[in-house]
Amino acid sequence: MAKNLLSISDLSKQDMLDLIEFSNNFIDDQGNFRKEDLFPDKIVANVFCEPSTRTKSSFAIAASNLGCSVIDFDINTSSIQKGESIYETVDALNLMGVDLCVLRHPESVIRELAESLPKMSFVNAGEGSISHPTQALLDMKTIIDHKNSLDNLNIVIIGDLDHSRVTSSFVEGIANFDIGSLTLCGHPEMCTNYQNPKTGNYESDMNKALQDADVVMTLRIQHERFENELNLDLETYKSSYQLSSEKLESAKGDVIVMHPGPVNYIEITEAVYDSENSVIRQQIANGVAVRMAVLSRFLGS
Ligand code: CP
Fold first, then answer.
1. In this structure, are 122 and 256 located in the same domain?
2. How far apart are the first and last CA of the chain?
3. Would you say the CB of residue 222 lies under 6 angstroms from ligand 1?
4. How many separate domains does the chain show?
5. What is the residue range of 86's domain?
6. Any ligand 1 atom below 6 A from CB of 134
7. CATH number, domain at 100?
8. Is the domain of 42 the same as that of 102?
């Protein structure tokens, strides 16, 4: 396996299944994360140039659980505020002996950084609207935890797909599996890149999209990524695209409801978030185990 995780396409189907299987070793029978002193001599830098709660904290906890030293890089108090570039910033960390850089950045810089700084490993923790490979892995693990495999499942993704790096990495990842169907659903103006998807079908009518679904993934509107202010009546949007208990009745009885977070309760009601079908809080916890597996593999290679 390569020493960087830049995109989900860096992984074969077997690599993905191996990482998910490996991640199960880091959760004990009580659901607690194991602390393993596997990499006491390794330094991981958590470089987040966009906001994050789940990804940043789970990488920090995962690295700490593995015995690594963790640099919690704060962009707001870094020399980026004095005009230093992301390249100079990461190179400085490299020269100080950081072994692996976990990077979230609004632009596509990670591949060039990885090529320029071959001594370090890089793990993509979110690349603008483009990709979020560890989220795809933890989403696949959560589905497998509940459905045993990805095979033959009817999967529906609903929301602001155009701005969703979660969607792009997940769709790319599950294209390797024999799923039943993939339906991409949302306001047509938020799904312009998915009208004729390579994998799956676009459906603007949420009630039709939800028919016989095994897995429903909901996504918030990413207001921060729209170039022009969004001219949208939220009540009209909610009547068409908010996942409510009534709408969920079209899906299978044992459907699981997912959301990568953060949740705005425009795209999903509180009742569905709190329902027995919701696995959203398990997705958050799975983030730690999956990132322990990812760090172990890429620190060890
Ligand atoms: N899912 C996800 O990336 O969440 P954060 O932005 O909180 O890291």
1. no
2. 7
3. no
4. 2
5. 8-131+284-300
6. no
7. 3.40.50.1370
8. yes
Facing residues of 181 across strands?
154
Q: Is residue 54 within 8 Å of 80, Cβ to Cβ?
A: no
Q: Please give the number of the atom of ligand 1 that sits closest to the Cα of 58.
A: 8
* Cα–Cα distance measured from residue 17 to residue 177, given in angstroms and rounded to the nearest whole number: 10
For residue range 12-70, what is the model confidence (pLDDT) as tens digits?
999 999 999 999 999 999 999 999 999 999 999 999 999 999 999 999 999 999 999 99
Which token pair is 164?
């969703």
Q: Is 52 in the pocket of ligand 1 (CB under 6 A)?
A: yes
Tens digit of pLDDT for each residue in 229-257? Answer: 777 889 999 999 999 999 999 999 999 99
Q: Is 255 helix (H, G, I), strand (E, B) or coil?
A: coil
Q: What HEC string does 56-117 produce?
A: HHHHHHHHHHCCCEEEEEEHHHCHHHHCCCHHHHHHHHHHCCCCEEEEEECCCCHHHHHHHC
Same domain, 168 and 288: no
List the residue whose alpha carbon is closest to atom 4 of ligand 1: 54
Q: What is the pLDDT of residues 184-205, one digit of tens each?
A: 999 999 999 999 988 899 999 9
The residue whose CA has the least distance to atom 1 of ligand 1 is: 260
Residue whose CA lies nearest to ligand 1 atom number 6: 52
Judge if 173 and 278 occupy the same domain: yes
User: CA–CA distance from 108 to each of 125, 129, 164 (Å)?
Assistant: 12, 9, 15
Residue nearest to ligand 1 atom 3, measured at CA: 55
